[in-house]
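sorry for the late reply, my laptop died twice this morning and i had to redo everyting from scratch. anyway the thing you sent over, i finally got around to it. pasting the sequence first so we're on the same page, its 87 residues, then the predicted structure underneath. double check i copied it right bc i was rushing
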Amino acid sequence: MQAILKDAQGGFAVRAITRDVNSAKAKALAGRGAQLAAADLDDEASLTKALGRRARCVLRHQLLEHFSPEKEQAQARNLAAAAKHAG
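ok and here's the structure:
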């Protein structure tokens, strides 16, 4: 993601999906050129909406937030399903 944000002529854009587009980290990404979209990894519909018609996505999450491999796997499945819907 950092390399894409640094390469304005690379032809790619970064859409950062976050629960809180008003957080300091989200605003910092927006300041570097990322598009922000609100979604929750536990809500497949919100992920589908946030992805739009994006061709590629990378999941970067916080296992330390919940310490649950099952929750982590469920969130990854939600993102995969949303990406499939996005084409």
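Residues 2-86 form a domain with the Rossmann fold fold (CATH 3.40.50.720).
thats about all i looked at so far, will dig more tmrw
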